[in-house]
Amino acid sequence: xxxxxxxxxxxxxxxxxxxxxxxxxxxxxxxxxxxxxxxxxxxxxxxxxxxxxxxxxxxxxxxxxxxxxxxxxxxxxxxxxxxxxxxxxxxxxxxxxxxxxxxxxxxxxxxxxxxxxxxxxxxxxxxxxxxxxxxxxxxxxxxxxxxxxxxxxxxxxxxxxxxxxxxxxxxxxxxxxxxxxxxxxxxxxxxxxxxxxxxxxxxxxxxxxxxxxxxxxxxxxxxxxxxxxxxxxxxxxxxxxxxxxx
Length: 246
Description:
71% helix
């Protein structure tokens, strides 16, 4: 095999950065960065069983986002927000949430007996995922009134509550021995309720920000928020039907 044919084969297997679509570069770059961080945090975690349980969310969510990127792309802001959340969650999975050094440092600084890093991540879940949910809603549900900002908050609250139930069920069925580390209650009997409240508070702040930005830009809640090309499957089917009717 000569050098020219080998170079052609390599270029087909590994396309150059210039050949990647412009709207794909930020998501792929963020995916690469997160992959490096995730691999680093997968090395010698504090509790391997807890790490595996925590990373079920990552194993499910990342492939879904990748699979639906072409069909229903999000904005770069949403991809950055989701990456930050996944990094925070992966840090919690590496150390276990009750042993994250940053949370201990916060406790020493503010006099907390409990490691509140889990509360920070739950707040981040609402703050960092509400905008992506709003984007999907703006392309599918098309709510035209101000209460369209309330749906992402309700979705965050529902997801948080369901996650707490799922977390408890998985800990009891899959790995009862790792239940305390996985649940991370740290002796707080109201831990699940407080975690859900933190997530809802983050979502409220995100929707307040979205509302202010929309008023400044003169944009309505149901308008498409994605700055990249592409359309959701629902919109594509509608376009095909209109073309067929024409």
